[in-house]
Write a structure and sequence with these properties.
- The chain has a single domain (about 20-115), classed as Substrate Binding Domain Of Dnak, Chain:A, Domain 2 (Up-down Bundle), CATH 1.20.1270.180.
- Helix content is about 70%, strand content about 0%.
- It has helices at about 1-20, 20-50, 55-80, 90-115.
- By secondary structure, it is mainly α.
- Helix 2 (about 20-50) packs parallel to helix 4.
């Protein structure tokens, strides 16, 4: 009997974890996007600092980031072309999840300027050229 009670207690507790309201799910997705965006900006600022002496690279990176933001927004509009109401109460969660995914992709694309490429890679371009040589 004791084991049945413990089992039911565990099941109730685990179900409580999964029984979030849509509002809570929307809020969580929004917070995850904010966290991803914060990390992206941290990586971006580190690159700007590390490569400050490479003026042509910095100019082009800033332009690339500006255009990436336009791309990100256009990509979200392409994914959800209708009005927010047409997607129902899940829309904020779905949009937040998609923004998070796109932001993680961009963060990884930028991270190579901090971490470098695998040894032996011949096409490094500006990666590692912090002085603009």
């Amino acid at each position: 009997m004791k084991s049945v009670f413990i089992f039911l207690l565990l099941m109730t507790g685990s179900m409580a974890v999964f029984s979030q309201t849509q509002s809570e799910l929307n809020k969580t997705a929004g917070q995850e996007y904010k966290n991803a965006d914060k990390k992206l900006n941290e990586i971006y600022q580190l690159i700007l600092k590390d490569y400050a002496a490479n003026k042509p690279f910095i100019k082009n990176l800033k332009e690339a980031q500006r255009i990436w933001i336009q791309f990100r927004d256009a990509q979200v509009d392409a994914m959800f072309p209708g009005s927010a109401k047409s997607y129902g109460s899940m829309f904020p969660m779905c949009k937040g999840n998609y923004l998070t995914e796109l932001t993680h992709q961009r963060t990884e694309a930028l991270r190579v300027w901090l971490n470098g490429l695998p040894q032996g890679e011949a096409c490094t371009g500006s990666i590692g050229d912090k002085q603009g040589n």
